Amino acid sequence: MPDPTGPTAPTVPTGPNAPAPAPPPAVRDAAAERPLPPEALRGAFRPITEVGAAVLHRRCADVTGFGSPELSRLVDDMFFTMYAARGVGLAANQIGVDLRVFVYDCPDDDGVRHIGHVCNPVLDLLPDTAGSAAPAGPALVRAEGCLSVPGARHELARAARAVVRGSDKDGNPVVVEGTGFFARCLQHETDHLDGTLYTDRLTPDQRARCLADMAENAEAVRAARLTRARLLNR
User: What is residue 198's DSSP assignment?
Assistant: First the structure.
């Protein structure tokens, strides 16, 4: 999922000449430029798979090799690739790896930074208000993009609160709860591991518009990622 401040992503109208809803200023400020965590400093860039690649359109395999050097390297490379692509979240199948793991470095609507990774995530959507008996539902409509659909965004409704349960790379239990923009990230990345892109949740006309934007902008986005990867490696 892209950084909401990404310079190469267009603002996609969502109605007659209407701009897509923007994230709150706290989200934009927190995501603008972040110091790299240790995982990213150890990692390397891997090419990002794009819409149409088979690995993006099927459920990924469960992680079983907890504690292995291979899984640790994967997580490190995913962090580095996410930063090179100016993302706030990245799923393993977005670098061509058929495993249920995603990484994130994403602010919530208050600008609080959340960093981590989850293997074998299970997503629950929560009521908008803590303690409420009301069922969860799509409550926030905002512009959303995807690193695997480079150069396109469209508004999409997502639940305002979400929790993901899974494990870390060593097999320890992990529970991650998010609100606002971070809740959107958790939903987006778990969708990826189920074989669902955000464009799959759009109408056919909206999806066609996103793919047209991708065709127009993707080359510049790919070039910017490679340039940033080289800069981060210095």
Answer: G
Going by C-alpha positions, the residue among 204, 190, 164 that lies closest to residue 59 is: 190
pLDDT recorded at residue 231: 92
The reply to whether 189 belongs to the active site is yes
Q: For residue 175, how far is the Cα from the chain centroid?
A: 18
Q: Which helix (H) or strand (E) holds 122?
A: strand 113-125
Are 136 and 88 within 8 A, CB to CB?
no
Cα–Cα distances in angstroms (integers) from residue 109 to residues 4, 114, 147, in the given order? 12, 11, 21
What is the C-alpha radius of gyration for the chain, rounded to an integer number of angstroms?
17
Looking at the chain, the whole-number percentage of residues with pLDDT higher than 90 is: 75
Q: State whether residue 203 is helix, strand or coil.
A: coil
Which has the closest alpha carbon to 123: 186, 81, 75? 186
- Please list the ranges in the chain whose pLDDT falls under 70: 5-33, 127-138, 234
Q: Which of 33, 39, 189, 219 is catalytic?
A: 189
Angle at alpha carbon of residue 181, lines to 186 and 159, rounded to 5°: 65
From its phi and psi, is residue 117 left (phi > 0), alpha (psi between -120 and 50) or beta? beta
This model's pTM is above 0.85: yes
